Each structure stands twice: as structure tokens, then as C-alpha cells.
Amino acid sequence: MAEHILVVEDETEVADLLELYLANEGYRVSKCYRGKDALECVGQHQIDLALLDVMLPDMDGFKICQSIRKNHFFPIIMLTARVEDVDKINGLMLGADDYITKPFNPLEVVARVKTQLRRYRRYNSQGREGDSPGQAGECEELEIRGLQMNRRTHKSALFGKELDLTPREFSILWYLASHQGQVVPSEELFEAVWKEKYFDNNNTVMAHIGRIREKMQDSYRNQKFIKTVWGVGYTIE
Question: Which of 9, 66, 195, 228 is deepest in the core (most CB within 10 A)?
């Protein structure tokens, strides 16, 4: 069956253009022009990837992304006219997998869609993101100093209180926890979770670690759980 792409875009011309290019590649496309309709579609259908506009008439795309991530792990690509780094980081931290600014070339969007679906298929066939080589399928649960994680259910809790982690945040924390006692370089952590080549001056890992610490109430100044090893990476002792 053709993979199902959800296009959430209030500009009908843009939505129609994306539908045309995606359909030509053999994808099945559903279009929604409002956030409320998009969430209903996600609840009623099996979606393989969402193209999600940030600026919608009833709610912003960040809130929709956050809502989707409570129960679904399919790739989300944000579409927006905003170019500020803070908006990009905000979207990624809420669970988006990629970010495309307008105006865009539809062929680039199709290429990004193919890339994210390819990673998602590999992710499902080889184990959750964050598994190191040889680990997939070996360990499903971890418990470290009050932190409990279940890779099969993607649930985590700290001292019995559930942690509301995005799939990416879960993968980062799982990777660090599964390497307890080791210092994991930022480069290794990025390439293990994002499945991409790491480049210097990449602050993506740092931003996500900060968000995880916030949810764990593990302050940056008084690091009790995730420790920063300056110039190297991160560790859970």
C-alpha cells in the first residue's frame, strides 16, 4: 500500500502543489487546512509522515506537533516562512524531524520526505533510534538511579513520575543510559540518534539535552543526572 502523507497547510495553492508532486511519486495524500482537522485525521488514519505548516488559522504548528508526539512517532517536517533559529530549534525540540522554510522548491520537499521515510523504515526494522550497533533487540528495559525506561513502550519515569519525552529526547536519554559510566561524545550521540553526519558548531544535541534536563528537573548549574564533560560530551554515572 502507498505510504500516506498528511499535508497540513492553509494556503490551498501550496497544499495542492505539494499534493501534485507527492502523488506523482506514488504517495497517498490527505490535505488539511486547519489544525483541528489535522489532529482528527491523525486519530482516524494511519499516517506515515506529516508536512506541517507552522502558521495556521486556528492553532500554530508547534502545538499540533507536540500533540501528535504524545501518541505517534511518524516523521514530521515543519513548513514555515519563519527563518529565525529559535523557531527551528523550538520545532525540533517539540519532536519535529526536519524544517523547511518558504518559499521552497517542491522537489526539495519530496527529497526530504523520501529521506525521512527511509530513516523511519530503518528505525522500525532495526530498533528504536538511539540503539548502538549490536544493541537492537538485546535490552528492552533500563533502570538507573530512579530512572526507568522501556524501549518497547517508549515510556520513561523518574522516581515513579512519568517523563513527557519526545521520541528524539527518549532516544538521547536511552543512548546515554545504555552507556552508563561512559562519556558519550556529542558527535557520537548526534550520529547515533539523528543518523546524520555531525558537523562542528552543531548545537542541536546541547539544546535537546537542556530540554531533557528541564523535564527531569536536573538543573544545568547543579547537574545530578546527566553530567556535561566539557569539550567531550555527556555521561550518566
Answer: 9
Sequence ranges of the domains in the chain: 4-126, 141-236
Same CATH topology for 4-126 and 141-236: the answer is no
**What count of other Cβ atoms lies within 10 Å of the Cβ of residue 103?**
6
Cell of 209: 539535552
User: From start to end of the chain, where are the E strands?
Assistant: 4-8, 28-32, 49-53, 76-80, 98-101, 141-144, 147-150, 155-158, 161-162, 184-185, 226-229, 233-236
How many Cβ atoms are within 10 Å of 10's Cβ, its own excluded? Answer: 15
pLDDT of residue 121: 76
User: What's the pLDDT score for residue 28?
Assistant: 95
pLDDT for position 1: 72
Position 53 pLDDT exceeds 70? yes
Q: Give domain 4-126's CATH architecture.
A: 3-Layer(aba) Sandwich (3.40)
Q: Starting at the earlier edge strand, list the strands of the sheet with 76-80.
A: 28-32, 4-8, 49-53, 76-80, 98-101
